[in-house]
Amino acid sequence: MHTLEQPRASISRGDARVALISFDSLGDGLIYLMMADNLRANGYQIDCYGNIAYQLRDWLPQLNILPYPAPSAFEAAFEQYDFVIASPPSFLRRSFSETDLQRVRQKWALICQKTPQSWLHDHSAAASPELAHQFGGLLSCAGPIRFKTFDQESVVEITLQYMRERMCLERLTKQVSLTPPSGLKHRRHPRRIVISPDSAGPEKKNWSPAGFLKLCQTLRDKGYEPHIVVAPNNHARWERLADGRFPTPRFPEIGALAAFLYESGFLVANDSGNGHLASFLGIPTVTLYRKKNPLFHWRPDWAPGVVICPSFTLPKLEGSWRWFITPAMVLRAIENLSSH
């Protein structure tokens, strides 16, 4: 990356090359795609890096989306850019020494939902007047996206506020322009409901398998078409649990899953990435959340959605929240979403 102290020939914002490196979870990956599209709309020439985002590249032809470089060449791959904004992926965070961190934070603006103090660095202090004018708030955007106290805002709303107040972007929208692959029709199967019973934190976040299977039967009895969709590494287990009673389609990559979700009517999920993906695609969601907080920050918030919380909690009895969410509550939420 060009050092910010070096004067350069006058170039416009659109000529400057900016890289945005996404964190490597599904929910975060979608948040950074929204950020990249808003940077583009504000005149930046943006390249977005992320293995999750790369699997959705055909849906966003307006963006240049690239996979992560090889770990051994990761840092060097970004020397070509005028400015780099990075939420380092987990494999990079694990390998960072204190020396690595000190070097990288002076070259890149390090961001995340929450960041350690050691990530902070104000790039505006060393910038030439030309670059300060050109990049504006981007030079001082390093640090937490959750940069102040928030109450009921979703992570989507928090990120929009961060882009407005810390990046100083003027044109902002949470709706990312999507170009679905040829032949797909939005919600073609309005009674097909995708059931997503897994998550990245099964011990804490997942409703019980028995609850999901009972929900599938309840939905079928009401004329819906439940399909159980899980990550590839959980597919064999859920295929056994479904025992032929309900379809369990398997999707080898995110793009294929997105196509299936896009043509479905609803998604029911734990607090998980699949809920964010469905919402990102404009599919109404029902999220099962373990705490009594329907406005928790990480709820899906690109499309209409309902968060179902336990009707009662027993704080001293871990996992008891699962007893107080019922299939009837989920069915009622779906019917309410259908009526709007």
From TrEMBL:
The entry's cellular-component GO terms read: cytosol
The UniProt keyword set, sorted, is: Glycosyltransferase, Transferase
Q: Which GO terms describe its molecular function?
A: ADP-heptose-lipopolysaccharide heptosyltransferase activity
Q: Does the keyword Glycosyltransferase apply?
A: yes
Pfam families documented for this protein: Glyco_transf_9
- State the Gene Ontology BP annotations: lipopolysaccharide core region biosynthetic process
Which SUPFAM superfamilies does UniProt cross-reference here? UDP-Glycosyltransferase/glycogen phosphorylase
**PANTHER family, alphabetically?**
PTHR30160:SF23, TETRAACYLDISACCHARIDE 4'-KINASE-RELATED
Protein name as it appears in the record: Lipopolysaccharide heptosyltransferase family protein
Provide the organism lineage as a comma list.
Bacteria, Pseudomonadati, Pseudomonadota, Gammaproteobacteria, Pseudomonadales
